[in-house]
Design a protein that fits this description.
homodimer; 438 residues; alpha+beta; Ubiquitin-like (UB roll); 2 domains; 6-stranded mixed β-sheet; 12 helices; 15 strands
Chain lengths: 438, 438
Amino acid sequence: MPTGPLAFESRDQHRAWLEAQSRLPQGFRVGTCAFEFTPAEAAKPGRMNLALVALDEPTPAFGALFTRNAFPGAPVIVGRQRLDAARLGAIVVNTKISNVGAPGGVEAAERVCAEAARLLGRSPGEVLPSSTGVIGWRLPVERMVEALPRAVSALQARSVLPAAQAIMTTDLYPKVRRADLGEGSIVGFAKGAGMVEPNLATMLVYLLTDLRVSREELRAALAESVEASFNLISVDSDTSTSDTVVLLSSGRRAGVEPGRFREALRAVCRELAGDVVRNGEGVRHVVRVRVAGATDAASARGVGKSVVNSPLVKTAVAGNDPNVGRLLAAIGKYACERGLPLDPERLRLRLGGETLFEGGAMRLDPAKEERLVAHLRAAELYASRATRDGIFKPPVDWPRHERCVELEVDLGQGSGAAEVLGADLTHEYVTENADYRS
Amino acid sequence: MPTGPLAFESRDQHRAWLEAQSRLPQGFRVGTCAFEFTPAEAAKPGRMNLALVALDEPTPAFGALFTRNAFPGAPVIVGRQRLDAARLGAIVVNTKISNVGAPGGVEAAERVCAEAARLLGRSPGEVLPSSTGVIGWRLPVERMVEALPRAVSALQARSVLPAAQAIMTTDLYPKVRRADLGEGSIVGFAKGAGMVEPNLATMLVYLLTDLRVSREELRAALAESVEASFNLISVDSDTSTSDTVVLLSSGRRAGVEPGRFREALRAVCRELAGDVVRNGEGVRHVVRVRVAGATDAASARGVGKSVVNSPLVKTAVAGNDPNVGRLLAAIGKYACERGLPLDPERLRLRLGGETLFEGGAMRLDPAKEERLVAHLRAAELYASRATRDGIFKPPVDWPRHERCVELEVDLGQGSGAAEVLGADLTHEYVTENADYRS
């Protein structure tokens, strides 16, 4: 995940960087549009964005991973069927309503695909639907069908940025990352701010490449990259019903050596995963936990997730408060749930390079506490400020830097390791989610 | 858990009820004291309370359950050894420092027990230590030894309330429940507001009875009662390193039929467990989830816990926002983690008696939404209000009522059932935990 020197001093600086990231690989076009409507289940009107990603020619080289949530949305159900299709030609994404658990959800998704296919001269089975938003509400299908021609006429081959922007909901800024290699590139964009603890796949992520690659190699590379990126993050421990990661190759550029392709894809995924956490709902600190010395990688990942999902660790980080005993409780909780035999004598904990726990006991003093506070403050993305009504809103809509709260856990038992990214729990998160729909 | 008609209109009314609850069973005395000190690990001074519960005669009829967290505190380590002792004569409890993961923690706990034993004319192995507070800091042993005589001279046989009050930390009010049966009574008091998702035992809970009961029967009744009460609650999903439930019988009154004793003990435990959630840190709504139709009780409990621990469900409840799709995501998340095959067609969800999901789809409309909002508002314990600095503090220090947000989940698969109590996630929780130690 991003460890680079990226830091931005202004929205304009971030925007210029984003535009450079967003150059489309060969063989793709992107178009968007938006409209107002009133959902059947609600009293108030809302706004829906549509984003269309179209290949100049349908491709056999595509793959996708979806949520493992037991109640997947209709677009995920349809998407799983599309994996068997000979070719994919387009993706149509909508915001505002996730089309999960809604009556007639699959039919609604298919109808939108069919209309997009008709406009693009494709068959309906070559279009992948994708939705994000409120669970349980019905898609305004007729309004979407009415709007689609505007997205089609907006199609252009220069930049993915309009789509990255259109799929935002509570995201503060678009998330785009690229890798240039050989004669082509891999460009990914993501949406994801809340309900983020992906299991197998995450939120909505679209990866486009013009590098020639077989369907088999593409799918293997995608699975490996997702495992090493989106499956290692958590904003709020809630696994969405809509998580989707798609990779499409237009095959317009010569392929590269498979190892290089995988490495570049993994880098793009890890950077995007970092972006998803950094721009998570209410996130003021990104927390990176490096777990080592576990009996296996799964235990290492479990310990890391337990730490980043502990509300008490999360709130302590939010308050720049090195209340580090809470780390011990979080690790011990996971161990007791899973029956892991942990030895306190072998456990080592570090925060910002400072030793917290060693030789079976905490090692704390007032001077160290001051250094820990300084480390937490340096990783803060912005200072928290409430309005007079007690509403907390982030004051910036760009990522100021990529610094993390750096935690190290060594269980001293084996060679299992994992690196997990999580976030703090803030007033901004509560403001966002206690009245997100209103 | 409490479903009774309890409601209080003022602090005084609650206090009068508490005093009646607090009458001590025969054979027990309670004394407390407090002092100021500066922890070795901190720059700022703090205040420690000591509470002493003494039996007139040491008893063989005692039992205790402790946290399953893999890093238990020193008092838990010592307490487990005490279970083998012939008799128990006293409990000494301190606040402010939990004596978990601190260098020399076990020796410190033993030294405090030895001094209490000396003052009470007991042997050190007859005293059980108990601590709550910051993890990783060292007990100020000499200051505690110095203060103990004051707690001893404060011993009285009328009321448990001074102890219930002394063990409070972030609790807003003392928690005491009683059952009168036969010639005697069972009186329990509890401390617990944050880091509450007990596993086997919870926080600090002390149950006193004068009813004669054998050690074996007492321990069996305790295990069963804890399983049906404290193991079914969660304030914030964090399992503490200090959870402790102790039951002592002075044997001063004739015993009752074992079934009646168990029933009364279970009722006291369930009421106290409800109190712990109701007075959880920042809790503005208690959420009761009744899960039915699971393949077994463990799955039912798991589904219930997944719902009450979902940050997005919790924040929606905090905002009186029936964003009920989040329930579906929370249930589906648990099912995918545990590999439970769930059938959406058989799933039924209800909130406040209103059907949310049935026949494979959500059933929502604007009129129903209004009724759901009314149900959420009626269960609110107090309205949220921020100061001008964005600090959120509960405006009341008594429980206004015992109404809950009532959720029903029917998985339609078997006869496994469970009733889980949880809470919302509020600005008050973040205020409490982002700078609890300062």
